[in-house]
Each structure stands twice: as structure tokens, then as C-alpha cells.
Amino acid sequence: MNDMTPAWHLAANADTNPDETQEWRDALLSLAASEGPARVRQILDELARLARSQRIGWQPELNTPYINTIAVEDQPAFPGDLAVEERLASLMRWNALAMVVRANQAYGELGGHIASYASAADLFETGFNHFFRAGRQGDLVFFQPHSAPGVYARAFLEGRLSEADLLHYRQEITAPASGARGLSSYPHPWLMPDFWQFPTGSMGIGPISSIYHARFMRYLTHRQLLNCEGRKVWGVFGDGEMDEPESMSALTLAAREKLDNLVWVVNCNLQRLDGPVRGNGRIIDELEKLFAGAGWNVIKLVWGSDWDGLFARDTTGAWCAPSPTRWTARCRPSPPKTAASTATTSSARTPNSRHWPRA
Ligand SMILES: Cc1ncc(C[n+]2csc(CCOP(=O)(O)OP(=O)(O)O)c2C)c(N)n1
Q1: 241 CB less than 6 Å from ligand 1?
Q2: DSSP state, 71?
Q3: Residue 14: inside a domain, yes or no?
Q4: Average pLDDT over all residues of the chain
Q5: Domain named Transketolase N-terminal: which ranges (predicted)?
Q6: How far is the CA of 288 from the centre of ligand 1 (A)?
Q7: Taking the model in full, what pTM does it have?
Q8: How many domains does the chain have?
């Protein structure tokens, strides 16, 4: 707290008995050290139940610490060649940028939101290389619309698009005259039927469609009309898109129907094309509360592995405490599994060291 802290806040959080507080802290830490986190969760649940029965009026926060949900020691070995994947991602970032800049040079009004893909490239590549499964019995993927240039850049490296195609980004009408196909600005199966599965350019439609697709796939399987077991619906969306009422409106349906065939990856790049980040809050915290409250299993990816060394030196937990007076929030377990999951991410990284264990 500093001198600017309003008086009411001080009054509400003032510790009336610091020694007693310390005793409770010590008790909890010693329980964690001797019996482990499961026992601590049990005790905290019990105390919460007791507080409710006494009408104490306390409610646990829905936020977990501002750190990655999966601890470094729980990460499996990386099932690929990280160096090669990073090199490929760099090539794609570059080609996506070159494609958009060239279109803009040819026609000044053509842009391409290159920062969207720049922030999402690693998420997409991880999906393409390790999760998304193609084919008629494969997965369904809803791509963050403004990241389309990166998907074209990948298709170019795979030989599915030519250089001439890339030279006609957002020029579908004139492209055929040059023997090329035009590339639509955003994912659009009507304009590029053999390329995109879903149109996502209209904010909010992709998220809600992904939920209903996952629901319908469940229905088909249950009615024995089509076996969709093992197939997943993936949605990569921006944090700005989460502002759309459509994005949020079916979250509880997904949880209620236990749609564990649905995974959303929310790319929290804090960009929001046409809107500022709200107040002093943290978007990852905001979204975590929303999704957890709706019954989703939230997996946060906040820090890249270059931060591991710094976290390892934080022996008191000071780094991830939400505020000095609310230390217990550090001990809250993440909510149990439910329907689907969302990962939030930032691209905070520095280029040199890599600590991710290799397969
Ligand atoms: C229904 C609708 N309203 C408005 C827009 C205009 N629009 C384009 S991008 C964008 C915000 C995108 O923010 P975010 O989802 O965070 O993506 P990023 O900034 O990473 O590209 C908006 C509102 C739109 N595409 N669709």
C-alpha cells in the first residue's frame, strides 16, 4: 500500500492482530510442509464450510496465483524439436509480415493486423504440430480471425499455397487473372472452401459456434449417428473477442453438458484492436474468474520458460501474491475439472535460454 491508498481500503484490510495472523500463517505453512497441498485444500474447504454456516460472509476468490497453472516440475518433456519449431515459426512470422506489407504497398487500403499473428504464432504452431488432427474424422479448429496471414504463411511453407497466391492477399477478385487464387482477409470457407473450416471474422460468432459444434458432436455420438469420440473442437480467440456477448453467452451450457471435447485458447495479447484494456485490472485474472465461475477448467500460461529461474529464486511466494494483505489466495487450488478448458497466455519471453526439457 502507498500514500494514495483510500482510507476505506486501509480500514477494511487493516490487520487488527498481526501476531495472531502470523500464527495462522505458520500453522498453514507447516501443514503444507508436513502433509502436502491436498490436506491443506481439505482444511481450507472445511473452514470455508464452517464460515458459511456461521454466516461470516467470506467468499473465496476465484483467481489462482498469477503464475502458470502447470508447474515446471510437472511439465512433460517437449515431444518435438523445439529449435526446429522455433525456426519454422520465425519463417512464418516473417512471411506473414511480408505478405501483408506487400498487399499494403500495392493497395494502400489493405492492412492485415500483423501483430495478432505475431502474438499467436507459438500458440498456433503448438496446435498444428502437437494437437490439431486433420482429416474427415479429425478436429474442428476456429482460428483467431486476424491471425489468418500466419496460417497462409504456414500453407506456403507446406507447398499448399504458391508465392503468387501470397501476392494476392485480400485480392480475391483480381487474382484469377494472374493465375493465382486470392486469399481472404479472415478465415472464410465460402471464399476458400478447401482451406477454412469456419468463418470467424465476426467477433463472437466463432466462440459460440465452437460450443454448439462440440455439443452437436456429442449429440451425434450419443444417438449413434456418427462416432465423434476422440475428436476435438479447438478455438483460438483474442481477449478482445471475449467482450462480445456471444462469446460469453453459452459458457455455462458447455460446462453443464460436460463438453470436454472443447478447448479454447484465449490469446491475451492485451491488444484489442479498437478498445483499451480496462482499468488497472489484469485481463487474465478477469477471464479466469469468468470461466471458472461458469464451470470451466482454466489452465493459465502466463510466463515462458525464460522466467523459470526467477521464480525458482522466489522462496516466499512474494511474486505471485495478489496483494500483501490477501496472502491466502496463494494457497487456493485451481478448480476441479469441468467441461472444457481455456488457456490464457502472454508472449513474455526473452530469446536466449530454453529450460523446457526435451524428449
Ligand atoms: C461483430 C464484430 N464487431 C467488431 C469487429 C471489429 N473488430 C475487429 S478485431 C476486433 C478486436 C479484436 O481483438 P482481439 O480479439 O483481442 O484480437 P487481436 O487484437 O489479438 O487481433 C474488433 C472489435 C468485428 N470484427 N466483429
Answers
A1: yes
A2: -
A3: no
A4: 84
A5: 201-307
A6: 20
A7: 0.81
A8: 1
